[in-house]
Amino acid sequence: MQATDLEVLAGAEASGWATDAEVATLRAEPEEWAQALRRLLTFTEEGLAAAGHLAAGEREQVVADFRTELDNLSNALCRLTGEDRRRRPPGPGGETQAGADTRSGVGEGAPAVDLPTQPALHGSWAAGRIVVWAGSPGGGPASAEVRDDLLGVLDAGAVPWKPSADVALPGGASAPARSAPVEDILGWLVGVGNTDSPAVGNSLRWLSEVARWGTELVAQGRVVPSLRRAGGGRGSTKRPTERYRVKWLPALVDARHMRRLVQTAPGALAAVERTITPDALCRSLLGIVVDAICRAGAGRLVTPATAEVARSRTEVAEAVLSGLDGAPFAAVPDHAGALADRLNEWTTAVTGESPFGLEVRLDAPQDDGGWLLSVEVTGIERQPLPVERALTIVARHQMRQVDGLVQRAERLLPALRRPSTRRGQVILSGDEAAEMLFGGADVLVGAGFDVRLPAFSRRRPRPRLRLFADDSGRPSSVGVRQLSNVRWSVLFGDTELDVKEIARLAAEARPLVQVNGRWVRVEQADLTAAASALRERAKITELSGAAIVRQAVGLGGGTLGGPVDVVGSGWAVDLVRGTTVNPPRPLVEPEGFRGELRSYQAEAAGWLAFLDRAGLGGCLAMDMGLGKTPTVLAHLLANRGDGPSLVVCPPAVLGNWAAEAARFTPALQVEIHHGATRSEAAELSGVAARADIVLTTYTTAMRDADALATVEWHRVIVDEAQSIKNASSDTAQALRRIPARSRLAMTGTPVENGLGDLWAILDFTNPGLVGPRNAFIEQLSRSNDGEPAAERALRALNGLLVFRRTKTEPAIAAELSDKIDVLDHCTLTPEQVGLYQAILDRLLDGHLDTEDINARKAHVLAAITALKQVCDHPAAYIRDDTTPLAGRSGKLERLEEIVHNVFAAGERVLIFTHFAKWGDKLATYLTERTGMPIACYHGGLARGARDRLVSEFQSGTGPGALVLSLKAGGAGLNLTAASHVVLYDRWWNPAVEDQARDRAWRIGQTKTVISHRLVCPGTIDERVEEVVAGKRHIANLVLPARSSLGDIDRDQLRTALGLTGDVLVDEGGTDEAAEGDEEAA
Amino acid sequence: MNKRKRSSGPPAPSKETDVLGFWGLKTPPEGPGDATLIRPTSDPGAIPRSLGDPPLPVRPGVAEAHLAAVYEEAVRAATALAAVNGLLAPAGDDIDG
Fold it and tell me: Is the peptide bond before A1040 cis (omega within 30 degrees of 0)?
């Protein structure tokens, strides 16, 4: 084999390119192989010396390449013969090596500063390989085990590391090392620095940053191909054929970033290859990274076969194109060398450093003129210079550089090549300007030019209709019937466009408009929709106040549906602008209000006043637990004297209303119109005249609708307004017959089953205003953004016809306590009253006759238990499983309402009772009523079953409930999936109740926990409540101080246990249950 | 008395300075929080296009087309590498210019 052929093979083997057959050929002639390597080393060292004469920009890269070649060849020779030619004099870079020959350090001569002792993984450079070792400045070298542990921690355990000579550290110690070629660990090296792990040493972090930079350069297309001899060097040789390969080079390298890296290079990088400079190392590593990624990318393409040996210019060019993946090819040196030089010349504008740069500036049009694009040259004077001026003042040898720069820009921006009065200045059309803003500018920046653009945004502006209303010259009627002249336009952000402007923009391919000070591109589809929307409304020149409000909340329909921006003058405009531009002022607590309104409650009360002023009704839709009742009470107190308000609510919350009015607004006169003893029709006006609030239930209101309709109510308020979601139900129809100046609906769940619920509520509060049901649902169901219809509808209406606040809003959550206690006053049914009285009578008339004190005690305690069971439900006492539970207990009804609301909000609830058997019945009943499986956790269950219940409840999402016996489930469990707790019956010790509530309110809970305590006023329940609330001591109450139980006389017991005048009796329970069924059906 | 001649050059680095320099403690490299996220180009072939016709005497358009394809693949490979290492800038974070 000829010497030159051997050199080719030896060079390929040294660079890792040789095939197995070629390596076998070399192994057959080891002495010749070594000679070939020595010759190649000599050639390469000569080339390295010659590289010193190259221009500055190109020199660094070429030197780095030669160094790599030298490293490869030296290593190959060392492997083959043991001859070490790896110690070389400094190359042309000439910088002082960092860290080399550093012998001071740990132990003798150790620095006086505190040095880290935690070992980290470090990396050193060794001829295209990364040598990894572990150590620390304070602790010295780490063992191989520690190093391997660190490699595992940093996800490099699977890398095929090869054994490597120990690395000498300062102070003479050495660290066991391993190494791998950069290409083999590139995926790991790029990312290993992107962590704050202390396991990553500074040298490794530095190498990673260079690898990241190389990756960035390729990702930005900042690379160019070059042609090199496969065994080293670029130039021609005297051999008939040579092997060549494409090497990819970084382009447009940021010199400042390079300097920064060089300045921060740890000396440890050169702990193996001691003569290498940081600059050379950085360039070598950058070159290897860029080359490896580009070759990998090119390798994905299938390329045509080329000649075995490229002998002509064309064949060499074809071989280059086929070899962009770096595969070596054989070529005639003359042609290949010439092509290498031409490639070098072609790319020199982006591989070398130049003092000049270009600044490309786009100026927005002035007074209907075009967009001015101008190119200026930087680096000549302090200020950028116009191209023609720059070309006249630079030196002759620099003129080519400047011209080359401008030509590069002209190739990327063909508009610059248009005939123009001045080179580098051109007027762009709107389409060209859009192309420049949203694409061309990025390309120019990527190609290394500075670009200055007017402010722009890629956000797509959505068109929205604007309605201008003008009531001047119209009759002076004010309100929903007021007619106004209207005209229409379309808003893109803050830019208003009329029909003509839209038509003009539609004629452009990429129309631009300025929105909020930024240029944005308007989509043709949006312009088409805008034009269509204006066409549809061209004949609508007059609208009523109600119609304008409907437009404002998105009920107008047609193309570009959604809330319309309403401006101009008139009742409706003032109304709509009043909620957006000048939102109502929050209410300051009125005199006599006992409590403090939270800020959102004050806002809600301000909104209620706004409704009164506007003559509108509305829906107060704050989440359960946010205090709707005190908010409304504050508003009623602030406007006391306007006239009576009728509050219609379920019987289960009738007591709450009375209790909360007494607590927060004792000055308000409250009358209850409910039960058999309620006022006759003829007396109602008199009752209303002396009352501020008349409380009644839905059933009573329905029965007495005609009588109630004779009263001049200032407002009718429906609480738990989901009761009227069926607009055709008897209840809803009856309530509509009761006239009032305004109507208010209160509910925490305004949309339970669909937008029809909301329509029913709003059509009750403002009859006719929100239009027909189907249109309402259709308009508010439209969505382009995937937002649920209910949320979008509530957002559109919020502040005008609806006041919506939820516990999950950050501002609300911040104001809320993390737990809220709510006392719910519940009614008794006649059945409960009868049973209660019978138990008490039996105790007082018979069981106390015995002289046996212990027996008397037992009877009293048994009676207390029985009375509490009756308050829970008759079935909890009489253990009758045959009679349905519905309609027989006020507490049960209230519980059902709470569960209903909790489920409607998608939340979970715990229900505690201290009667386990009743708990079981309750769970079964709630399961049937809600259709959701609801279990009972009690002490009778096996441990595994109990654990499973807790686990299932905790892991569930969405609506859910669990009934628990207070004794078995009151302590120790973690049930943070629940955000509501119901204490169905009371226990004497508040700590026991707190423990029960704390199953949900504990670490891990992220929501506010609302605890409902159900109490039947005027019963044993209330006595317990007084004890729990600390208003009485058990001893003072007589009960259940056991030592005295046996001594209590009949009167004392009657006082302690008997029904008082506060008891709330629900006499219409059965009817209401029946109606509920009717509505559900 | 044998006086040692004082060097006129910069003072030699102290042992402490050498050790700090070796371990990269004098001017530590940028930390993970400083790593610039990679924003791939939308036009991989911009650089070669700006340089004009490549000096490869093959049929017209062939070299440009092939180079463009290779640049595209190279950018794709680099983007993938950046993505797996969590170094890719999220799309749309430069929505305003």
Answer: yes
